[in-house]
Design brief:
This protein is of the alpha/beta class. 49% of the residues lie in helices and 12% in strands. It has helices spanning 7-15, 20-23, 33-51, 67-81, 103-108, 145-162, 177-197, 206-224, and strands spanning 56-61, 89-94, 113-120, 167-172. The radius of gyration is 21 Å and the shape is globular.
């Protein structure tokens, strides 16, 4: 989970045709006050939520192509911080699909969640074909599929504000290696800082080893039968 920007992550990236060097042009972030302030603010807020028993980090992901990114985030947060009866439970919610399954719970269920909205601006998306729309849907004429997605993205945030549900927002303006490197860096630093503040080691995963040992024990026993 911490080796994503090392050879372990960059070799597959290169095989996919990506420029591994662009992932790691991150020296400027050290001097970027906005990056630092956002990181500190985010860590401070999450620590406050944790103290108030808001321990579910719900990612409202509006970008289908970022699913694997958040599978990585899920491992990073859960494996790094889930120790000593502490931790954050990362839950990946696919939007807008989950408007019709989980949103009722998010809006009116138990108040132990905090949320992250995530979207990537798409310059090119399909325009709605008006020939397939009834007349009462004329407001969708000349709209693109991303316009509808972004409207849902903004509408959900408006409702969260009205209901005073805590959330933060990531809007990616350009999908490229540099931006993805920044996102990796932000979440890694955020997790390390949270671990240190919670007085736990964010780099180990001792109880995962228990399952590995138990699996080995069962397999070895079966071989001896």
């Amino acid at each position: 989970r911490y080796s994503v920007l090392s050879e372990t992550g960059m070799l597959p990236a290169s095989l996919m045709g990506l420029d591994y060097k662009k992932f790691k042009t991150l020296n400027y972030l050290i001097k970027n006050r906005n990056f630092q302030n956002q990181l500190i603010s985010s860590v401070s807020s999450i620590l406050d939520f944790h103290k108030k028993k808001k321990t579910n980090s719900i990612i409202l992901n509006y970008d289908q192509n970022s699913e694997d990114l958040f599978f990585w985030y899920q491992q990073l947060v859960a494996e790094s911080l889930g120790k000593k009866s502490k931790g954050i439970l990362p839950v990946i919610s696919t939007m807008p699909k989950d408007n019709h399954s989980l949103m009722q719970l998010y809006l009116d269920g138990k108040k132990n969640n905090f949320f992250t909205f995530f979207i990537v601006n798409e310059k090119s998306s399909n325009e709605i074909n008006k020939n397939f729309l009834p007349k009462e849907y004329t407001y969708l004429y000349k709209k693109k599929s991303f316009d509808i997605l972004k409207a849902q993205f903004e509408a959900t945030q408006n409702i969260f504000k009205k209901r005073k549900i805590p959330f933060r927002t990531f809007v990616v303006k350009k999908r490229d290696e540099k931006t993805l490197g920044e996102i990796f860096c932000f979440f890694i630093l955020e997790t390390i800082m949270l671990g240190k503040a919670m007085k736990i080691n964010p780099f180990n995963q001792p109880h995962v080893e228990l399952i590995k040992k138990e699996t080995y024990k069962i397999l070895k026993t079966n071989l001896q039968r």
